[in-house]
C-alpha cells in the first residue's frame, strides 16, 4: 500500500478502494486469513494512527488555566498592578497609601481570566463528549475468531462486523452485506437512508459521498441488516475526522484582536516611559522621583477599565439579543457578530423547511392525477422496507381536507397480499394488493429503473404500448423538474392473478405517472438573506446535498449560483487554486464535515470573519472552527454545547438582529479604546514637554492615576450609548491595526492646548495669585502653593477635555445635533465634570494635592476647551476624508 501524506490524499486513497476487489485490500494491508494478532495490530496502529479523534494527554485543567490567564493584555495588567502597588503602597507615606488602583486592576485581571477559563473548560467538555459518542463496542476478527473490542482499539486492516443499531466505528470497505441500510446524515446532513452492498463500483462515474455504496463512513448509523468490511481509515483520517483540529481552534478572533490592541499599547509604553524617566531625571535631578513618575505614566497610558468596559458592552448586547429569541452562551461571540463578514449556512432546515413536501402527482404528460397519488399511497403504506422522508410526504395526503376518510376506505378496499422490498439494484419497491377483478402489483421508485421495466403507458384510463423512444419521452417531462432541484419518482402498476410475488413478475408494467417532491425554501429566507447582504455579510451555502438541489434552492432565494463547487471538485484543487476558488464560490454541495471545515479555514485565511449556522452532528466540526458557531434549540445536545449562540427560532431574520447588536457592542468598545488611548497619549506627550520645560512635575503620580481612573469610571456608561446607523452598516474590525494611527493623530492635538494651559498657568494665573513668578517665590511657602495651583489647573483642563472629547469622537456626525448621545451618557458625563470640578474645593481634593482655583481660571478653561473642540471637529472631518471613517 502506498504511504500517503495529507488529508486530501488520505480521502482519495479511501475512496479508491471502492473500485477495487477485496483481494486488493487483503494484499495491500497484509491481512492474514485469521485476521490480525496483537503485534500486527500494533504495527498498523504505528503506521496509520489510532482510532481516536484527538490526543488529550496534554489537555489538562492546568493547561487550560495557563492559556486563560497568560496572554499579553493579562501581563500588562499584572505589571501595572505591581507598579501601582510599589508606587501607591510600598513607597507612599502612611497618610497617602491607596490600594484602590491595585484592587481594581487585579479584579479586571481575575474577571477576564475567569471568563476565558470557563470558556476553555466548556470547549474541553464538548471534545470529551464527542469522543465518548464515537467510542463504542465493535466485533472485530482477531486471532481467527470474532472478538469484542472498543472502537478505539480498531486499526486499519481490521475486519469488522456491523449489525442493526451500530454506529460505524471507522471508514470501512464492505466485503459482505445483506439488506444493509445506513443513515449518513452525520456525513451529508441529509435524512436519506442508503442501502449498502459489497460489489465493486464501476470506474469513471463521479460520485458524492452518499453514492459510494460499498463504503460505510465513520459516525454513520446502521438502520437495518448486517455487513462485514475492512477498516480503511481511522480517527482523524476518516471523512468524519478532524474534531481535534476543530477543537484546537478555539474562538480566538476576540483574543487576537485584544492581543493586537495590547501590543500597540505596549509599544507606546516601551517608547514613552524611558523618555519620561530621562526627561524628568535630567531636568529635576531627582532620579528616584523621576522613576516613580515614569511608572505612573505607564499606568496612565493604559485603559485599566478595558476588560470591564468590554464585558459590559458585550453583556449588554447579549442581554439585548436574549430578548430577541437568542441565547448567547459565549459573550465574546458578540464581537464575532460585529466583525462577521461571511455567514456559512447549511441548506436543510435553514434555507428550507425541515421536511420534504410532495409538490406534484401527475400523469405521464405532467397533468395532475389523483390515481397516481392513490397508487403511490398504497405502496408507501404497505411496504416494510426502510421508510424514508419521501414515503412520509406521500402518507401526509391523509391530512388533505376532506380526504382522510377516502384514503382509509381506499386502503381497506385494497389490503396487502405480498411485497418485494426496495433494494439498491432494483431501486424501487413492489407491493401486491387485492384488486376488484385481478390483484394489483404497484411499484414506486427510480424513474429510469421503473420505466425500463414498463411495456405500456396509461393516459386518462387508456392503455397504450410504450414506444421505442419511451425513456426519452419520459425525460422530456421529468428533466425540467430534476433540473429545478426536485426529487422525482415513477409510479407504475400491473394486474396480476397470483397472490404471491416472484422476481419475474417485475416486468411489463404500466407506467401511470410521476411524483415530484420539493424541499421548499422558507418564506422568510429570501428576505433575511437580502437583509444580511444589506449589512455586507456574504452568505455561503455549505451542504451535503446534491449540487442540482442546492443550486435550485439558492436560485429561488436570490443567492448567486454562478460559482458552485462539489466536495469531489474541492479535493482536486491545488493549494494555489484553493483560496481563489473558494473566495468566489457561493454554493458548496456534496461536502463532508471535514470539507466544510476546510472551506471555513480557507475563508478565514483569506482574511474573513466567518460565522456558521447548523444543527446536525455533521455541522459540528465547522461550527467549532468558525469565529461564531450558531445553532438552534432543537439541535443535538453536543451541537448546542459546542455553539456560541443558540437561536430559539431557526430563522435568519434573528441573525440579522444579532449582527446589529454585535456591531453596536463592538462600536462602543472601539469608542472607549480609541478615545481613551489617544487622550492618554496626548497627556503623556504633554508631561514629557512639561517635564523638560518646568521646574516641577505638572501633575503628581497620585493625581495622574486618579484622573485616569475617574475618566475610566465615566466610560463605563458607554455600553448604553447610541450608535450611528452608518457605523453598523459594515462589518467592524477588532484589532489594533488603526489604533496607533488614531492615537498619533488626535493625541498631539490635546497636547497643543495642554501647552497653552501650561503657559497661562505658569506665566499668568499662578504668579497673579501667589504674588510673583516661580523663581521669585523660591524659599517661601507660596512656591508650594504655586505648584498646587498649577497642578490643579491642569488636572481640571485635562479632565474637561478628556470627558468632552468623548462626545466629539463618539460619532462621525456633528455631535449633539446630528447624533445625540444616550441619556445615560449625557447625564453621567455632565455630572462627572461637575463633581470632579467641585472636588477641587473639598477637603478630599486637598488630600490629593488639589486646591480651589479663582473664577478667572474657569473663564479661561471654557475658552480653551471650546477652541480645543473646534480644532478637533475640523481634524475629525479631515481624518474621515483621508481614512474613510473614524477609526
Description:
- By secondary structure, the protein is α/β, with parallel strands linked by helices.
- It has four domains: 7-56 and 135-242, Calcium-transporting ATPase, cytoplasmic transduction domain A (Distorted Sandwich); 303-307 and 663-883, Calcium-transporting ATPase, transmembrane domain (Up-down Bundle), CATH 1.20.1110; 326-353 and 522-648, 3-Layer(aba) Sandwich (Rossmann fold), CATH 3.40.50; 364-512, 3-Layer(aba) Sandwich (Calcium-transporting ATPase, cytoplasmic domain N), CATH 3.40.1110.10.
- Helix content is 51%, strand content 15%.
- The strands form three sheets. The protein has an eight-stranded mixed sheet with strand order 8-23-22-21-9-18-20-19, with helices on both faces.
- The longest helix has 42 residues, at 652-693.
Summarize the structure.
By secondary structure, the chain is of the alpha/beta class. It is built from 32 helices and 23 strands.
Topology of this structure?
Layout: H1 7-16, H2 22-29, H3 38-48, H4 61-69, H5 72-90, H6 100-134, E1 137-142, E2 145-150, E3 159-162, E4 171-183, H7 185-188, E5 193-196, E6 215-216, E7 221-233, H8 243-248, H9 253-284, H10 287-301, H11 306-322, E8 326-328, H12 333-339, E9 342-345, E10 357-363, H13 370-382, H14 389-395, H15 404-413, E11 416-420, E12 428-433, E13 439-446, H16 447-452, E14 454-459, E15 462-465, H17 470-483, E16 487-496, E17 509-518, H18 525-534, E18 538-542, H19 547-556, E19 564-566, H20 567-572, H21 577-583, E20 587-589, H22 593-605, E21 610-613, H23 620-625, E22 628-632, H24 637-642, E23 645-647, H25 652-693, H26 701-715, H27 725-728, H28 739-770, H29 781-809, H30 823-839, H31 843-847, H32 855-883
Parallel strand pairs: 9-18, 9-21, 14-17, 18-20, 19-20, 21-22, 22-23
Antiparallel strand pairs: 1-2, 1-3, 3-7, 4-5, 4-6, 4-7, 8-23, 10-17, 11-12, 12-13, 13-16, 14-15, 16-17
